[in-house]
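Possible regression after last week's pipeline update?

I re-ran a chain I had predicted before the update to compare outputs. Posting the input and the new output here so someone can diff against the archived version. Not blocking, just want to make sure nothing changed silently.
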Amino acid sequence: MGKPKVKKMLFILSKSTLDSVYATFIMANGARAEGIECEIFFTFFGLDVIHKKRMKDIHIATVGNPGLHIPNIVGGLPGVEHLVSKMMMKQMEKLDIPPVDEFLEILSASGVKLWACKLAMEMFNLEREDLIDEVDGILTVGDFYTRMDDQNIHVLFV
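New output (post-update):
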């Protein structure tokens, strides 16, 4: 008898850096392509990704990001974060990877459930109207835990 197949992937997205956002989106999209149920729980700064006014201003962190191979002193210079983010977005565009807003529409249309964290919403004084229409709802942490009440469910914190 083979290993049980993954039934559902639950992602917790707590950051709004390009690398975290796209890693989550690409993995969620891949899960759906494999027929795996998928949900994303946006908490803390991850809420920026589903915030109507902030979602178009997602950047790559250039300070303290060893994967960029840029010294922190250079990464902290004015304009460097914007430039590196723009370069990364152009590279993703060449690979036909959609921008954040379009990717969220694709994920939602494919059946990915998008949840906002109630506590983080309250902490940042956000209302449902601040979020994109594709968000399926606002959950407490306890509500999110009930989404795991089955076998073959995997949780990934990004």
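Follow-up from reviewer: compared with the archived run. The first strand starts at residue 8 and ends at 13. Marking as no regression found.
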